[in-house]
Task: structure prediction
Amino acid sequence: MISDLLKQVVLADVAPPPGQVAALAVGALIVFGVIVVTAVIISIAVIKAIKYRADKDDD
Amino acid sequence: MSQKTILSNIAVYSVSHALVDATCAGTIFAIVALSQDESQNLFQLIVIYDILAFSTQPVFGLWVDTFRVPVHSAVLGILLVAASTLFLPIPILAASISAIGNALFHVGGGVISLNLAAGRAALPGIYVAPGALGLMIGTLIGKGGHFIAWPFILLLVGSAILILRIPKPEAAAPHELSGNLKWFEMVILLLLVSIAIRSMVGLSLVFPWKSDPTLLVALTLAVVLGKALGGILGDRFGWATIAVSGLVVSAPLLTFFPQTPAIAIAGVFLFNLSMPITLICLAEMLPGKPGFAFGLTTLALIIGAWPTFTELRVFTSHQISIFAAILISVAALYVGLQLYVSHFGKRIPTRQSQIQPAEKEYSGLS
Result:
């Protein structure tokens, strides 16, 4: 969805030179890593908790 | 739940979805139009927007599930998106507010659509589908330099008022998760892998003819119809039948004929059929956690999008990579759905399934 904006903006209309894109991406990817990894960790913990509860109910 | 409640909710939330996505796209492209010489910051801004809008939804979903506040979440999201249009001179603030608002609305509306007809894919598909249309309209307005905040604010406030006035659907009574729990994580993982790969492929495809406005509209309608019909057809003919066959047929169309608009558009339609089916299957795996289930799908979307943000895009957009990726997605979806049917799927629609008495009222809709 909105990711499509990224493609259109970055790769078409206001694209910096390819080398610069790589350098630019580093900062954004660090933010990406921190937020996304946190969301993944929380999600795994919640899924494990749901399974644990279902397991307990079965018993 | 009455038909009136179902119809009014799905209509209002679907139109609001298009409006929210149109405003977000319009806001982002208005920022682009205002700051044409700052491509470096814009790149980071848009990546941050994507991350905030997509990866925060599991957490917002948990909040909505815990406190049972999908309507509040949707309304707050709409108001934040409306407010974001007032902060265009401060791009990072406008993008962040817009992204958080977008995430809150999506989760709230997603929970409502899942609650309207528990265990059915049609309504979540109809709710999600108009987003692509809104995105296209917002993008065209923003890119054309025609973005004006107040009409969007008025429409958004109007939709928030409508959401507060329509009858609220009852939260679906959470069914107990029963089955062989040994396969619990595996089913969820396979469904999410399928979604992530679909996201990567969707962002890696290049359609050179997209600059033609007529073809762009046709492409967008293919996305909208694919998502909307995927759920309806899946409920009628079986989730696995529709989702897997749609993806399988789309693989050669998208891989080998991206330059031919008619074939590629048909491929995009088939490619999108599986979206509501993966969503409802995840929601069924996580009873009582529809918001979290909805959020997991968007988290998978952003993870799948990650390679396309980097130089790996050269690899992911290669013809063979696209073909292989779709086939891996097919395999993950097929195995995931089969495991679900075998171990958890008491309510899964198949070709042979009969409509339960309690669902007759809903089935009269389709």
Q: What stands out?
A: Chain A touches chain B at residues 1-10, 13-16, 18, 20-22, 24-25, 27-29, 31-32, 35-36, 39-40, 42-43, 46-47, 50-51, 54-55, 57-58 (CB under 8 Å). Helices of chain A lie at 3-13, 18-58.
